[in-house]
Amino acid sequence: MLYSVRGTLIHREMNLAVVECGGVGYQCYITLNTARQLPQVGAEVMLYTILNVREDAVELFGFADNGELACFKLLTSVNGVGPKAGLAILSELSPERVALAVASGDYKALTRAQGVGPKLAQRITLELKDKFGLPSATDGIMLDTGKPVGGFNASGNAAEAVGALTMLGFSAGEASAAVAKLDSELTVEEMVRQALRALGRR
User: Fold this and answer.
1) Whether residue 155 sits in one domain with residue 92
2) What pTM value is reported for the model?
């Protein structure tokens, strides 16, 4: 319904931003990662948004980029993960780190977020991994050339990076093509970060 808001930042808190558009101030709940990227009050800002309607409240959530918004949608699609838990996770971990945690089954990384216990973290990793069919680190991936990426370590890193990008909403083809252009010696997180930059420019 509301894809984004662009206007003047008239108020900001640790987990809240108010953006004035056409004389109307839109209160957006935000993550700490988004808060760190906000400009000073009085400057122009643009946030990607999602509207959450409940019986007792209508809330707007704002994100600095599409990757964070996509990750928030995925997290809140898991049974038991509400908007507050989604914000808490993305305040502790970047979308790349969330994707890598799911791809590798590292549920403990998610427990760093306030209010996310081991059981909920395990459910998140299991449900999202099953939902997106992420490859394991040792599966390897086939690129447009029809050849596996690099050797064992390179193949494992590339597979995890592709899995993480797939979780963030990119097709396997897009993710594989972006990762294929990167140095195979990069860490998984750096691969995801550089691939996201490249995919964002398309």
Assistant:
1) yes
2) 0.70
